[in-house]
Design a protein that fits this description.
The structure is a single chain. The protein has 206 residues and is of the alpha/beta class. The chain is built from 9 helices and 7 strands. The mean pLDDT is 95.
Length: 206
């Protein structure tokens, strides 16, 4: 039996680049695991003057102009997806929530049922809502009927990273990029998503 090729959508929002770094690591790891990958950003909602007022935000916005914006078609194409968002008061950003709110037609048709789903995040400060943001993202997946795959403690890196809900990073207000441990945890999470999705697809092959 031929091994199934898994389609993975890595969908993220990032203002100053922290979550983008995690998303890139996830996309790269998924590709190394044999998946076809789409790296997609959600649409920015903040006004230009707000972006321009923050040097890091403006620089990241300019540097990622080439990244394609996420669409509902990316979700129907994907067998699995990883969603990454910073936290806003312990919940996903408005930009990520707005994208999610466009998926009603897919949900109504059952097109997201049995997709493999996983989440990751970053905060400015320690304990700044990392777990609650991931749990809030997962609320969406429950409604979609998706199959949530957390990293758990299924790899030694998780005992260093310490978050079984999903990869997370503390950026100290955007000044500290994800380090070796966080990137390795993200790579493991993405690889696990691909492996679980492949197992699921293998069971559905004739």
């Amino acid at each position: 039996m031929d091994e199934p090729v898994v389609n993975v959508a890595v969908i993220y929002y990032s203002a100053t680049g922290t979550v983008f770094a995690l998303a890139k690591a996830a996309a790269s790891a998924a590709e190394k695991a044999g998946a076809q990958v789409r790296l997609r950003k959600v649409r920015e909602l903040a006004p230009d003057e707000a972006i321009a007022s923050n040097e890091g935000w403006a620089a990241h916005s300019a540097a990622t102009q080439h990244i394609v914006e996420a669409s509902k078609e990316d979700l129907t194409w994907a067998d699995a997806f990883l969603f990454g968002t910073p936290t806003r008061y312990g919940t996903p950003t408005a930009q990520m929530k707005q994208f999610i709110d466009t998926t009603g037609p897919l949900w109504a048709q059952g097109l997201l049922v049995n997709k493999i789903a996983s989440s990751f995040t970053a905060t400015a400060t320690p304990h700044g809502g990392q777990e609650s943001t991931i749990l809030a993202m997962n609320n969406t997946f429950y409604h979609w009927g998706s199959i949530i795959v957390p990293p758990g403690y299924a790899d030694p890196i998780q005992f260093q990273a310490g978050n079984p809900y999903g990869t997370s990073h503390t950026s100290q207000n955007g000044t500290v990029p994800p380090g070796e441990v966080q990137l390795a945890a993200m790579e493991f999470q993405a690889k696990r998503v691909v492996e679980i999705a492949a197992t699921f697809l293998r069971g559905r092959l004739p």
